[in-house]
Specification:
alpha+beta; flat; 74 residues; 2 strands
Length: 74
Amino acid sequence: MRYGYIALAVVLTAVVLLFKFQNLQAVTVTLLSMNLTLPVSVFTLLVYILGMVTGSALMGFFRNVYQGATQSRR
């Protein structure tokens, strides 16, 4: 089983590196007259991380609201 996990980690790393090297084109993002130019792969990684952070914060907020609503009924 250990070799399976190692193989999976190697395959995922290879896919991420392949994505990185195939997407070196620059993309420009504009927000409120601010411009940011960076490679597509870096932009994709930043959007993914931003989504994880905001998603976990939103889930935490909803969890607290739900717990507050259920505790007041008791």
